[in-house]
């Protein structure tokens, strides 16, 4: 027994690890420190050993001290210079670096803990016990296993138990996204980014494929309606929205927008550039892969925070994984529930989500703007104007593709005369052209305009070919004759 060591006093100033030092300052007693000789708030070394033991149980594991077969062969090879070295740090140095104490203090802690875990039977068999001075310890890798199981249960519940009023789903989403606005990535970035004027997300791109000239011309004339979010009655279910919930899906670059609509060869794709006219708060799921949890080994809640961060790093991949058409109705349920939950501002006010593209590799991004933030400003064609949409022109060599939207405006004086003639009409406006607010199909909802597009923000891309990036695997073939009789 290391007589006397347990009752040694260790002051807060001899411990540089912030959480442990603050614990001593808050709960210690004033005493002379046996290591620096100063009087200050202190713990008995026995109490410090309890904290170190708890931290090691949660965050460290014993490193392998024996060579495996491959290493043993390399070690015995006369032509090899391989020498086995256990990973991690020797016990004293692992304690010293975790608690940020001097080597002499770490040695005393190691002696007390080694004595605490030693037993006669292990000593007789020559087995090492916890905190043996020759052992090495390495940091345990969080696996997020409990969070993974919770998420599987959440997905299963949505698909098979309760879809619209699920207390289990609400509890899971609250626990996953609680405090997400305060989380940071390893580079110091936030998961909540600002979009809109003057930001990298000032413009969003949206595409639509056409095989009909009439529908194509309608889209070129009124891109605000034909490329913007559909009315709720026509809103199909998507990755981030249920049927009937109208949202805006856009991409951060033109190529991704075209790829996302998966246009068939020979189709004409109208590509629109939408300007975001007001500031937005967006949750960047693509940054989840770098999210970190800051804390102390000595904080009992830090291990759970690390497990949560491990799960969150995988959540971006879960939400963007490819879904086969036959499985969309079921497999989109979890992501639809997430989007609905975040759109309600339960954890923090949000206007949309940034998520990785499934169709384009290389970190390309898509953005979904929730219904409340997806209103497109009405494109107002001057009253009385005649409009044409041309998709072909002709020269001496014959017709060629050329896309042009034409507004033929009435002369100013004619327009003024028309206005003067209407002033005495008692039914003015009753059966007239609807106002911009009425014509945006959102009159009275209280939503503000978020997006703007004009005919100058359009281009048409004709799909001549589609290229696939594949992962190729040869198919093996094994043929053999079964024995006539078994050997047993």
In brief:
This protein is 33% helix and 19% strand. It has 488 residues and is an alpha+beta fold. Helix 2 packs across helix 5 and helix 4 packs across helix 5.
Number of domains: 2
- Pairing-aware structural class of the strands and helices? alpha+beta
Report the average pLDDT across residues: 85
Amount of helix: 25-40%
Which value, in Å, is the CA radius of gyration?
Answer: 34 Å
- What percentage of amino acids are in beta strands? 15-25%
Number of strands: 19
> How many helical elements?
16
Report low-confidence residues grouped into runs of 5 or more: 425-438
Largest sheet report? 5 strands, mixed
**Tertiary shape:** elongated
Question: Could you give the distance between the termini?
Answer: 59 Å
Multimeric organization: single chain
Q: Record the strand order, biggest sheet.
A: 8-12-14-15-10
Description:
With 488 residues, this protein is α+β, with helices and mostly antiparallel strands. It has two domains: 5-139, no CATH class; 143-379 and 450-488, no CATH class. It is 33% helix and 19% strand. The chain contains 16 helices and 19 strands. It has helices spanning 18-27, 45-59, 69-76, 91-99, 103-117, 120-125, 145-160, 167-177, 213-221, 223-226, 254-260, 302-320, 328-331, 333-343, 412-422, 436-439, and strands spanning 9-11, 29-32, 39-44, 60-62, 89-90, 136-139, 184-185, 192-195, 203-210, 248-251, 268-276, 280-284, 291-292, 352-356, 365-369, 386-395, 398-408, 451-452, 458-462. Strands 8-12-14-15-10 form a five-stranded mixed beta sheet. Strands 9, 11, 18 and 19 form a four-stranded antiparallel beta sheet that branches. Helix 2 packs across helix 5. The longest helix has 19 residues, at 302-320. The chain starts with 8 loop residues before the first strand and ends in a 26-residue tail after the last strand. Residues 425-438 have low confidence and may be disordered.
């Amino acid at each position: 027994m290391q007589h006397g060591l347990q009752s040694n006093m260790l002051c807060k100033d001899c411990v540089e690890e912030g959480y442990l030092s603050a614990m001593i300052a808050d709960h210690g007693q004033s005493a002379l420190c046996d290591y620096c000789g100063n009087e200050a708030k202190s713990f008995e070394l026995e109490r410090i050993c309890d904290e170190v033991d708890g931290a090691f149980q949660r965050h460290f594991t014993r490193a392998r001290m024996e060579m495996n077969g491959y290493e043993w062969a390399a070690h015995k090879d006369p032509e090899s210079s391989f020498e086995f070295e256990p990973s991690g740090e020797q016990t004293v140095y692992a304690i010293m670096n975790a608690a940020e104490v001097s080597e002499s203090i770490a040695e005393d802690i190691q002696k007390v803990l080694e004595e605490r875990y030693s037993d006669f039977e292990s000593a007789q068999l020559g087995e090492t016990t916890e905190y043996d001075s020759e052992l090495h310890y390495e940091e345990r890798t969080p696996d997020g296993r409990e969070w993974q199981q919770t998420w599987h249960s959440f997905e299963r519940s949505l698909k098979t138990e309760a879809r619209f009023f699920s207390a289990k789903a609400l509890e899971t989403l609250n626990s996953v996204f609680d405090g997400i606005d305060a989380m940071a990535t390893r580079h110091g970035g936030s998961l909540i980014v600002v979009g809109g004027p003057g930001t990298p997300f000032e413009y969003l791109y949206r595409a639509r494929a056409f095989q009909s000239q009439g529908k194509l011309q309608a889209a070129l004339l009124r891109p605000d309606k034909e490329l913007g979010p559909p009315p709720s009655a026509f809103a199909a279910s998507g990755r981030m929205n249920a049927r009937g919930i109208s949202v805006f899906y856009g991409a951060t670059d033109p190529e991704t927008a075209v790829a996302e609509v998966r246009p068939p060869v020979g189709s004409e794709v109208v590509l629109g550039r939408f300007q975001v006219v007001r500031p937005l708060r967006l949750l960047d799921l693509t940054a989840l892969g770098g999210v970190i949890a800051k804390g102390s080994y000595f904080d009992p809640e830090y291990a759970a925070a690390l497990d949560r961060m491990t799960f969150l790093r995988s959540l971006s991949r879960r939400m963007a994984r490819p879904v086969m058409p036959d499985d969309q109705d079921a497999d989109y349920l979890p992501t639809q529930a997430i989007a609905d939950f975040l759109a309600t501002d339960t954890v923090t006010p949000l206007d949309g989500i940034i998520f990785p593209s499934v169709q384009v590799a290389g970190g390309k991004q898509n953005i979904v703007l929730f219904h409340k933030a997806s209103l497109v400003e009405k494109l107002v064609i001057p009253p009385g104007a005649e409009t044409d949409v041309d998709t072909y022109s002709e020269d001496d060599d014959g017709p060629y593709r050329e896309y042009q939207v034409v507004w033929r405006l009435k002369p100013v004086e004619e327009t003024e005369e028309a206005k003067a003639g209407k002033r005495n009409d008692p039914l003015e406006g009753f059966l007239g052209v609807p106002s911009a607010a009425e014509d945006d199909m959102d009159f009275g909802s209280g939503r503000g305009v978020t997006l703007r597009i004009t005919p100058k923000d359009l281009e048409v891309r004709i799909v001549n070919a589609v290229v696939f990036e594949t992962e190729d695997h040869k198919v093996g073939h094994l043929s053999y004759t079964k024995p006539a009789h078994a050997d047993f």
